Amino acid sequence: MSRTLGLIHSPREADEFFTDEGCFILETWNRADDPTLSVARARVERGVTTRLHKLAGIAERYLILSGSGRVEVEGIPPQSVGPGDLVYIPADRGQRIANTGDGDLVFLAICTPRFVPEAYLDIDPDPPT
After folding, report:
1. Which residues lie below 8 Å from residue 32, measured CB to CB, with a gap of 6+?
2. CA dist., res. 122 & res. 51, Å (int)
3. What would the pLDDT profile of 63-107 be if each residue is shown by its tens digit?
4. What is the DSSP secondary structure assignment for residue 63, as one 8-state letter?
């Protein structure tokens, strides 16, 4: 369980969880009383590509912290990304990211409005493994 002290919110590493999308998520900030924004740390293991999906009504940004990857966003050619890159994904656009490096690909997923599970739509043509 994470804790919030005043204006400082400290997520706990033990709260990281694996998603059907194929990556690990640690919710940094996602609260019903602050519906305008959510922030999560995403971690994609070496050699993994997340499932093609979209977020209904939610724009997302990936701020790459470490590792290297190849991001696909509906409507633009796939692009390589690395530390410091920020990827903007408009609401309702197909998206996925592949880890092309030797270690974990780690990034912040910043959603506006905040991420809610019912907004996640798996549009990958391949069945989940």
Report:
1. none
2. 7
3. 999 999 999 999 999 999 999 999 999 999 999 999 999 999 999
4. E
Domain ranges of the chain: 36-122
Question: Tokens representing 53?
Answer: 């999906």
CA distance 62 to 37: 13
Query: With 0-12 CB in 10 A as exposed, 13-18 as middle and 19+ as buried, what is 126?
Result: exposed
Q: Which residues of 70-105 are buried (b: 16+ CB within 10 A; e: fewer)?
A: ebbbeeeeeeebeeebebebeeebebbbbbbeeebb
The CATH homologous superfamily for domain 36-122 is Jelly Rolls (2.60.120.10)
Is the Cβ–Cβ distance between 54 and 94 less than 8 Å? yes
